[in-house]
Amino acid sequence: MTTIAVLGAGKIGEALLAGLLKGGRSADELLFTERHPEQAARITDRYGIAGVEVEEAAKRADVLVVAVKPQDIDPVLTALAPAVGPGTLVVSLCAGLPTSLYERRLPDGVPVVRVMPNTPMVVGEAMSAISPGTHATAGHVALVKELLSSVGQVIEVPESQQDAVTALSGSGPAYFFYLVEAMIDAGILLGLPRAVAEKLIVQSAVGAAKMLAQSTEHPVILREAVTSPAGTTINAIRELEKHGVRAAMLDAIEAARDRSVELGK
Ligand SMILES: NC(=O)C1=CN([C@@H]2O[C@H](COP(=O)(O)OP(=O)(O)OC[C@H]3O[C@@H](n4cnc5c(N)ncnc54)[C@H](OP(=O)(O)O)[C@@H]3O)[C@@H](O)[C@H]2O)C=CC1
Ligand SMILES: O=C(O)[C@@H]1CCC=N1
Q1: What is the 3-state secondary structure (H, E, C) of 57-112?
Q2: DSSP code of 49?
Q3: Of 1, 9, 60, 11, the residue nearest 32 (C-alpha)
Q4: ipTM
């Protein structure tokens, strides 16, 4: 049995615990730490998983998944340093934080794998990108891939690409939610009831996402197929181009990448 402890059961930590249970792990194999007692009690009630202190998690777990905000990492590393050994695998989900930070602060030889997942984990559709640190072996990478495969898809990337990955797929779901929110607002502007606008847009998003996932065509071909000559769509596209939506997207994702780099300093 591999015991997995999630340090920081917030949004992504809870999503991972829920996903691992759905993927077939038993609650006995899982632990978590959480500094809000009410959140800890809620998680134990809901999933039957035990909440423990960081030091106990470090002693009992084979895999420690760090899911606190990057700004909160310092006390976690201080608590882990005397408690982890080279047999414990540390998996960091934290934006920006390099494996070298963990390697510097933890005992020599502790294996570290950096992962950037995303919240569609809650529906088994995460996109996770993983990068091994200096002491992580192929076996460690395989174990992390196996864990994350139960909550979505996994790719391995060089660690130098992790800030870009964070900006693209880590934050990516937020961009889609933002777009959906704006499109629902447009429905309200055009006089549709909110419930109708929501249904129209959410199902259009689900359908478009399935087409993107299943089709071998480039997204531009899929868009062209919707854009009839002298029709409605091209009028909307002209407005999007006029307002610089593509350039805004490039700038937005570059800004997210820059923030990830900054968090790692
Ligand atoms: N949300 C997302 O979509 C994604 C997040 N990530 C990464 O995951 C990490 C967590 O993000 P997210 O889940 O959004 O953040 P949250 O703030 O929701 O979750 C972190 C939780 O950990 C708690 N915490 C902080 N320090 C400790 C500690 N020492 N011991 C126990 N618990 C602690 C926090 O408490 P408190 O509320 O008091 O701070 C909070 O409840 C971040 O590093 C982020 O970069 C990665 C990919 C996607
Ligand atoms: O916004 C953040 O910093 C985190 C990392 C990627 C998604 N959410």
Answers
A1: HHHHCCEEEECCCHHHHHHHHHHHCCCCCCCCEEEECCCCCCHHHHHHHCCCCCCE
A2: P
A3: 9
A4: 0.98
State the average pLDDT over residues 138-160: 97
CA of residue 262 to ligand 1 center, whole Å: 17
Annotated binding site for NADP(+): 67-70
157 within 8 A of 129, measured Cβ to Cβ: yes
196 alpha carbon – ligand 2 mean position (Å): 31
Ligand 2 pocket residues where CB is under 6 Å: 95, 166, 170-171
Q: How far apart are CA 222 and CA 211, in angstroms?
A: 8
Give the residues surrounding ligand 1 with Cβ less than 6 Å away: 7-8, 10-13, 33-36, 39, 54, 67-70, 72, 75-76, 93-95, 116-119, 170
How many angstroms is it from 123 CA to the middle of ligand 2?
Answer: 18
For residue 7, give both structure tokens. Answer: 């340090």
- At 86 the pLDDT is 81
Backbone angles phi, psi at 34, to 5 degrees: -155, 135
> Is residue 160 helix, strand or coil?
helix
The answer on pLDDT for 1 being more than 90 is: no
Q: Which domains does the chain have, with CATH numbers?
A: 4-162 (3.40.50.720), 172-263 (1.10.3730.10)
Which pLDDT band holds residue 103 (cuts at 50, 70, 90)? very high
Q: Which two tokens stand for residue 228?
A: 């009839």
In whole angstroms, how far apart are CA 134 and each of 108, 110, 116, 145, 261?
A: 11, 9, 18, 17, 20
